[in-house]
Amino acid sequence: MNLEEALQNIRPADRKSMEEAKMRWRTVGKPLFSLGKLEDAVIRMAGIKGTASYTLGKKALVILCADNGVVEEGVTQTGQEVTAVVTENFTRKAASVTLMAEVAGVDVFPVDIGVARDVDHVTKPEYKVAYGTKNMTREPAMTREEAEQAILIGIRLVKDLAEKGYDIIATGEMGIGNTTTSSAVVSVLLDRDPEEVTGRGAGLTTDGLHRKVEAIRKAVQVNAPDPEDAVDVLAKVGGLDIAGLAGVFLGGAICHIPVVIDGFISSAAALCAARIAPEAAEYMMPSHRSGEPAGGMVLEALDLSPFIECGMSLGEGSGAVAVIPLLEMGLEVYNRMGTFDEIKIEQYEELK
Predict the structure, then answer these.
(1) Containing H/E element for 282?
(2) Three-state DSSP class for 66?
(3) What are phi and psi of 101, to 5 degrees?
(4) pLDDT tens digit string along 245-267?
(5) 28 closest CA partner among 52, 6, 4
(6) Which pLDDT tens digit goes with each residue over 1-37?
(7) What residues have CB less than 8 Å from 36, skipping those under 6 apart?
(8) Which residues form a coiled coil (predicted)?
(9) Is 350 assigned a catalytic role?
(10) CB under 8 Å to 77, separation ≥6 — which residues?
């Protein structure tokens, strides 16, 4: 199946189920709307799943791992070799997010979609598109075919997890240099100057930040990505991890599974998915507002409001994993708390 065929299966979220969930909340024996965004989340997920009666049993974190040729431009504090090291750490529960995921009851699935070398216990030929991207300041980061292949891999990952009974998917990434590629993608799609959307990533100096901004500016100038064609933008100034994550978001819409946006890189992928198939945005769940300058801009462009404000900028899926227990708490109240009739209390009325 090609990308165009896959996208034909995306439909809007189910409005009837959302209305039923709203009505259920009105009967729950507590002050109306008192759980705020958690109530909204339950309603949104009802629309995604097509039913007002559901649970979040099995939870997954999909981490797309890839290297970026633009690292040659001195836009990072660490070397490219770190990508493979951290990717392997995901399998040994030796990374920050794996410890967080253990607490949250989330199963972790690292995927080598483009790491510069093969990684023990992670690399699978069917998921690996290339050994990193090209240096986008000199040429397109990848071909359009490679970008589409990465998107389709992301879709396939969601389908596989859906078949295994997973009810919600958190998104994560690992790739030295991917705040640079994400800033480039967002700069083009939101029509913003690179300086507005580019931050220090994992601790750049002021000189390093300047190099990063100029690298993005040069990449956009050299490759002239089409802002009306998100796949073209991904291919020319994006990364394989971002393209794969865009596929995960599209896969959520195809399979009717909520997909949780992590931080800036994940949100850049979500923006690409929404530009490729606008209805896919209805299947996305926010988590937090990234500490990167454009973190809030992208969520606003997606018309999403973050659940938590922790000043996090770790990536790996840490914010997405952190919000899942909150979503479960809201759903637990929705599913298990008695109604006003059951607890023999007069029902609250919405005051005008």
Answers:
(1) none
(2) strand
(3) -65, -35
(4) 999 999 999 999 999 999 999 99
(5) 52
(6) 799 999 999 999 999 999 999 999 999 999 999 999 9
(7) none
(8) none
(9) no
(10) 201, 202, 203, 204, 208
DSSP 28: B
Between the alpha carbon of residue 58 and those of residues 16, 66, 190, the distances in Å are: 25, 26, 35
Whether the Cβ atoms of residue 282 and residue 253 lie closer than 8 Å to each other: yes
323: nearest Cα among 206, 118, 170: 170
**Measured distance CA(111)–CA(152) in Å, rounded:** 14
Catalytic residue among 316, 332, 346, 350: 316
What 8-state DSSP symbol labels residue 58? E
Q: How many helices (H) and strands (E) does the chain have?
A: 14, 5
At position 187, the amino acid (one-letter code) is S
**Where are the extended beta strands (E) located within 56-99?**
58-66
The position carrying tokens 């165009």 is 4
Question: If residue 292 lies in a helix (H) or strand (E), which one and from where to where?
Answer: none
Q: Which of 236, 238, 293 is nearest to 264 (CA)?
A: 293
Are 204 and 212 in contact by the 8 Å Cβ rule? The answer is: yes
